[in-house]
């Protein structure tokens, strides 16, 4: 049960970073930060929930990390076709909601 919580948390944590990563130039400082800033949080989750450092745990966490990054990038690509987007997922969510409210 704890494993499932940690995996879902890692995916949800990485969605905004994948969204941001899609907006910046590859191998620039913002790109590097968008890829590496979630890592300390994932390490904290491993330590806090006592998951250990067995090699069998790495494929699941790495897979959930890349799943979150991929979902964020896909969300950016999808929204960029229909509206003007920035590099911040939360800002775009709020702006999209306001556009819906104002247009009614």
How is this structure best described in words?
- This protein is mostly helical and 104 residues long.
- The chain is built from 5 helices and no strands.
- α1 packs antiparallel against α3 and α1 crosses α4.
- The radius of gyration is 16 Å and the shape is elongated.
Supply the key terms.
104 residues; mainly alpha; 5 helices; 78% helix; 0% strand
What are the SSEs and their pairings?
Elements: H1 2-23, H2 29-36, H3 38-48, H4 58-82, H5 89-103
Helix pairs in contact: 1-2, 1-3, 1-4
What is the structure about, briefly put?
The protein has helices at about 1-25, 30-35, 40-50, 60-80, 90-104. With about 100 residues, it is mostly helical.
- Mean pLDDT over all positions: 90
Q: Give the low-pLDDT segments.
A: none
Rg from Cα: 16 Å
Q: Whole-Å distance between the termini?
A: 43 Å
Percent of residues in beta strands?
under 5%
Report the principal-axis shape.
Answer: elongated
* Biggest pleated-sheet summary: none
Structural class: mainly alpha
Element-level helix/strand string: HHHHH
The number of E-state strands comes to 0
Helicity range: over 70%
Tally of individual helices:
5
């Amino acid at each position: 049960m704890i494993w499932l919580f940690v995996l879902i948390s890692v995916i949800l944590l990485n969605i905004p970073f994948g969204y941001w990563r899609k907006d910046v130039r590859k191998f620039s400082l913002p790109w590097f930060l968008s890829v590496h800033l979630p890592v300390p949080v994932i390490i904290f989750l491993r330590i806090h929930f006592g998951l250990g450092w067995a090699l069998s745990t790495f494929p699941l966490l790495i897979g959930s990390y890349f799943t979150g990054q991929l979902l964020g990038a896909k969300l950016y690509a999808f929204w960029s076709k229909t509206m003007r987007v920035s590099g911040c997922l939360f800002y775009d969510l709020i702006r999209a909601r306001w556009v819906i409210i104002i247009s009614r």
